[in-house]
Amino acid sequence: MSNEPRDVIRGSTDAQTKTQEARMEGVDNRFNSKLREAFGSSPFILTKFDKFMNWVRGSSMFMLQFGIACCSIEMMHTYAVKHDLDRFGSGVPRASPRQADVMIVPGTIVTKFAPRMKRVYDQMPEPKFVVNMGSCAISGGPFQEGYNVIKGAEEVIPVDIHVPGCPPRPEALIYGVVKMQERIANGESSPVTVKPYELEQFSDLKQDELVDKLASQIDEDDLVMRYNWADSP
Amino acid sequence: MSSYEEQLDTAEGVDYDAIADLLGDRVVRRETHLNAEGFVVRPDQVAESLTLLREEAGFDHLSMVTAQDYEDRYETIYHLTKYADRTHEVSVVVPTDPENPVSESAASVYKTANWHEREAYDLVGVEYDGHPDLRRILLPETWQGHPLSSDYDQDKPQIVQFDEHKNPLEDDHRGADSDTMFLNIGPHHPATHGVLHLKTVLDGEQVADVDPDIGYLHRCEEQMCQQGTYRHQIMPYPDRWDYASAGLLNEWAYARVAEDLNDIEVPEYAQIIRTMSAEFCRIAAHLLAVGTFALDIYGDFTAIFMYAMRDREKVQNILEDLTGQRMMFNYFRLGGVVWDLPEPREEWFENIRDFLDDLPGTLEEYHDLITTNEIFQTRVIGTGVLDPEDAKQFGTTGPVARASGIDYDIRRDDPYGYYDELDWNVVTEEGGDNYARFLVRMQEVEESAKIISQCVDLLEDWPEDERNIQSNVPRTLKPDPDTEVYRAVEGAKGELGIYIRSDGTDKPGRFKIRSPCFCNLSALNAMSKGEYVPDLVATLGSLDVILGEVDR
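ok -> C-alpha cells follow
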C-alpha cells in the first residue's frame, strides 16, 4: 500500500460528506445537535487547554456530603428525586473531602465546629469551591446574636456563592450551584472579602490575659482558633 | 405500686400534702408552679429526696433539669413525672448560694441527670457535688464563663482548641495491658446524621465504650428565645430545633406553654387545624428517619431513600399550600393559627385524600423492600437493645421508649389539641431493638394518617361562619412576674417540653427546652456497649437524633 492518499479522497469533498452522513444517519434524532454536526464534518475543535479544563471542571462537580443543620434537609431534597441536582453534573455526594470539589455549607457554624470545618476544607484538593447555603452560613442568620455562633462561614473559609433563604428552596440551591458551575466554566473566581479566622499554634497567639489563663490547659503546639467577638461584622 | 403510691394518687392527681409528709423536714418551703407544686429542698439532700420520690411515690421519669440564676441565688429545678401517668407532676427546687453554687448531684438516682446537670453546669454554672463526670457538654472545654448566667460578657474573646484527631493506627491503648483502640467517628461523618462526634473505644471490632461529644450545633436557642417577645418573636425558633420537617410539632410545644402561661384559649377549629398539620409533620419526620436509616444500614441510596424523599415531597407540598413554607412554617400563633386553610378548600382536601389513599400502598412498598428484607433483618433484629428499665432511667421518650414497651405518649396521657376527641392508637413494641424502633415509626405513620383523615372529615363539614382561627390575644403579653410553668407535647422524637419563668416583662426570664433527642442520645452508650461498630451505626440511626435539637 502506498502512503499517497487515493485520488478519490484528494480533491473531493466526498469523504467529508460521507463521514458526516454516516454519523448523522441511523441514530436517534435526539442526539443530533449543532455540536454533533460540527464534529461530524471535522472531528476536531481548537481551544485553549485552560478553557477546556475549566469547561470540564464546571461540568462535573463532586460535592462533599456535608450536613450541618436545617439546610442539609433541603440539600438532601436537592440531591433526591424531583429536584435531582445530578442533572446538572453536580450531584455525586462524596463522603470524603479528599474526593470532593465543592463544599456546600448548609447550616449554622458554631465555635466548636469552625476549626473542624476549616480542617475539612483544607483536606479538599485544589481547585475547590464553596457554596454557602442559607442565612446562617451567610451571616449567622436568625442566630447571629448568639454567644456561640460564627457570623457566617466566610469568617472561616473563602466562599464563592451565597444562596440566601432560611432554608433556601431546592430550586434556589440548584440555581446557586449552576451559577457557580457557570463561573467555573468561564474561569471566573470570587474574591475573598473577609479575613478569615485561622487555625494557629497556641504558642503563636498574642499574649494576653486569656492566653495566660489557658496556658495550663492547652499544650503550646496545639492548634487553636481564637474568636474576637468584638471585631465580628 | 407501693401502698404509699396509692395513697398519694387521688382522683384529682397528686396529693401534694402527702408528698410533703413523705419528704418530711427535707422540705424548706413550698412553691406553686402552674403545672405542679415545687418543693424547695436543701442542696445537700437532693439525692435522698429524689430517691424517696422515685421509690415511694412512683416518680420514675426525670423529665428535665432546669438551672437558672436569680439576683440572690442559683436554682436547679428537677421536673419529675411518671411514665404511668403524665399528668402527675412534681418539681424539686434546689436553691444554692450565689458565691459558691454547689448542690448534690441527682445522677445516682436518675441516669439522665448526668447529661442534664452537665448542661446546667456548662451554661449556667451550677456545680454538682458527687457528679460522676462534671465537665462541659455543649461548649468547648476551654470556654470562659457560663453564657446563661447574668454576669456573662458576650464580647470577650474565646479560644477554642482543635484537638487533632488521634491516629487510630498508632498505639493508643488505654491502660497498660488492655488491647483497645481509640476511634473518632465524626463530627463530619456520613453516618452521624449531622455534626455528632462519637469518641469510641474499640476492643477488636466490638465497642468497649462510646462517648457522644455534642455541641457542634449549639446555636444558643435558649438565649434567642429569652431575647424575643412572647407574642411573635419566639415562634420562628422552634421550627429550627427539630428541623426534619417536624416544625409544627415544635411550634406547638411553645404554643402550649405560652398559652398556659398567659391563659389563652384556642378555638376548636384552630385546634383541629393544628392537630392535622402537626401529624403531617410527624409523617414527614418519620419518613426521613426511615429513609436515612435504610441508607445507614445497607447504603440504600437508590430505592428507600428516594422513595422516602418522594413521599416527603408530597407532604411538604400539602404543608406548603397550608403555611407557605416547606420547612420553617411559622404557622402557629398564640391563640390559634395564622391563617385559614388554602382556597379552594375542596382542591386542597382532594390533595390530602389522594395522599392518604396512596399511603397504604406506599407503606406496603416500604415493608416489601425493608421490613421483610433479609439483610436488613440480620442487621437490626437483636441489636441495640434498650431494656425498659434503662429506657426509663435515661429519660427516653417517643418512638424509642415505645419500642421498649413503655406505653407513654403525651398526646394521649396529657391530652392537648384535639387528640382526645379522635380515634387512634399508641403504638408500642416489646423488642427494644433497632427493628422495634423502626416498626414503631412505620406504624405511627399509619396512625398519623388516621388522625389526619378524621380531621379532614371534621374540617370539611365545619360551618362556614364558625371558622374561628384565632382567639383574641393582647398585642403585648406580660405574664405576672415569677410565674413558672413546664409543659410538654409529643414531638416527633418524644417529649418536647419547655419551661418558662416570667419576669414581669414581655420576654421570658428563663426559657429552657427539654429536648427528646438529647435524652435519647444519652442512652447510646448503654445500648451499644459490647456490640460491633456497624451495630453502633445502626443504633444511632434508629435513635433518629436531630442534632439541632440535641444541641439547641
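Chain A touches chain B through 58 residues (CB under 8 Å).
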